[in-house]
What does this fold into?
Amino acid sequence: MHSARMELAGWGRLTHPACDASRPERMGEAIRDFAAAPNIALHGAGRSYGDCALNADGRALITTRLDRILAFDADTGVVVVEPGVNFRRLMDVFLPRGFIVPVTPGTSFATIGGAVANDVHGKNHEHDGSFGQHVTEIDLLLPNGEARTITPADTALFRATVGGVGLTGMMTRIAFRMAKLPGARVRVREKRCGDLETFLTAMAEASDAPYSVGWIDGTARGAALGRGILETAEPVEGAYPAPAERARAVPFDFPGFALNPLSVALFNEAYFRRVPAEGRVRRVHLRTFLYPLDAIHGWNRIYGKRGFVQFQCVVPYETGASALRDLLGVIADSRLASFLAVLKRMGAGRAGYLSFPTPGYTLALDFPNKPGIEDLYDRLVGITLQAGGRIYLGKDALLDPYRFRLMYPEFAAFAAVLAEIDPARRMSTDMARRLRLQDGP
Amino acid sequence: MKANTPQTWVILGASSAIGRAFGRLAAQRGAEIVLAGRDLDDLRRTAADISVTTGQAARVAPFDALDTASHADFTAQLASIEGVLNVVLLFGTMPDQAAMDADPEIALDCLQAGLIGAVSILHRMAPLLEARRAGCVIGFGSVAGDRGRLKNYVYGAGKAGLHTYLAGLRNRLGRSGVHVMTVKPGFVDTAMTFGLPGMFLVAQPELVAAACLDAAKAGRNVVYVPWFWRYIMLIIQHVPETVFKKLSI
It folds into this structure.
């Protein structure tokens, strides 16, 4: 095993513990590395925000070079990939052929392995569900080295693996169904919403749109609380490739004072005013719509060396409006809010025991790592739990094991699978230790 | 060479990160691909990737640089390929210098693969390429071959030998319309360099592959990839030996 001592971090860069990492380029090597390590975490592109792919002082296997697309069947739309293939490549290869990944997170740099392990969702969750629901087959190397091929029919192991934050073993091959689409462009409708109630009503009315996402000004208070821009989109005809993309990189860590209540409020005001009061309709390339931040490489450096925390919760529709009001109120009062908050509607689609989605509103936003951040997160978690909601593990870095258990009622089933397949706890991550995911319920 | 003549790239050492990137890009630009190397399972995966994503034919051929006795048969197989034959030579190992200092056998293996293996296969392929009167050979040297350094001089010696060999081969094959290009990559983000201390200005394999294909198309003879290594090495080559021999770089 060619490993090197290095610091790995989640996208939020809140912690960057040292570990012994290897980055095999061949599957045979990966399997050997996996078997040889006394304990191991799987690490993809490092796009999960918290600590679900970190293993302080342990071993890590980086999957990004296991990046082959192994097969594609244009009749069924099923594509077979190694776990390190990312969304960007799948888009580049298949959009020109009229196929799209059925579900994508907000960055195309995430890997498919990570998408399965977090059972990610996208801007089309209400209609198309979570990523794991489109997975037809997984080759999984169990922690004891046994190779298994699992399908949705293998209920327990499949449901523990999808959304299982990498704790059931190493996926070596993933098959999933792509979706057809008419072209590589979307017609985007943007609408200003002056307050939360208007926003929620507009979102409900627009819920027929295939894609939908709301951007909320987390600094707005009082009558303007919850104001923002609602974007809905539908695929239309249009050629691929995209017009040449001008990627920019953030060249250094911003100093801590760059993000302050004034600069953030000014940015958010400008973002809100960008869309005319009567709204507008644009045709843009799918990539521009789906991955707005991918054109700025390393945007996480804007938050400086100390990193940031992303809070993402989902609250059920029944309690959601008042919970959102409470959450946004606490956020605005904290004066720690950063740029835009994202608000979306979610449907019931989920494929794993620890999958995040549940019908309701999901709210996500970043907080720079400044004093008071833990208390703020704690209060937001409290409101979420009170409303019967939950926190997204793919984003989380600060939740505690007790409230985690209250949020995830299927955890007992997950724990039972782990107890059976990994009693020795070879799979090892900072998140598993923090949330005691390998302990019983 | 006519634009519509079928092109084939034979990639020797195709399991390397640069080999994989090179195969993908050459296929994307319309060539058929032969992936040659030892790890056939890995090569089959890359071949599948290339055919699925580009629609170009990609096949796998067993090749072992150390097994020079097999090189004649390997070359004979290539004779059946129609159109223009192009070769990129990427194999080689870079053992830790300290390990080679402790065990000279490791040093010999390094030269055996990177230099002897290269001469063995290219010398056998040369008549085939000459007979075709077209095509291109890209040989991967290294900036390490430009000057013997404390940290990496056996590997560097093999690469220096390869540079000289390729220069002569360029002269020879050029007379038959076959172009030979020497590439001297700087640090590339591959398994060879992963986690090594002291790496800087590390280039991604995709960038190196693209730079090589473009430079070969432009008929360049010797290229540094990325380009700025030319100037870094210019400085390193001009440090007087009396000073250089005391440096620990």
